[in-house]
Amino acid sequence: MNGLAGKGFFIWKIQDCEGGNPQAIAEAAQRAGFTHVLIKIADGGWPVNIDRKTNTDLLPPVVQALREKNIRVWGWHYVYGNDPLAEANVAIRRIQQFQLDGYVVDAEIEYKQAGRDRAARRFMGKLREALPNIPIALSSYRFPSYHPQLPWKTFLEFADYNMPQVYWEKAHNPEAQLRRSVREFQNMTPFRPVIPTGPTYKTGGWAPTEQDILEFLRTVQALGLSGVNFFSWDECRKQTPALWDVIAQFSWSPQPPPPDIVDLYFQALNLHDPSLMLHLYHPDAVHITPARVIQGSQAIRAWYTTLFNDLLPQASFTLTHTTQSGSTRHFNWTAQSGNATVKNGADTFGIMDGKIAYHYTNFTISA
Question: Start and end of every SnoaL-like domain (predicted)?
Answer without folding.
Answer: 264-359
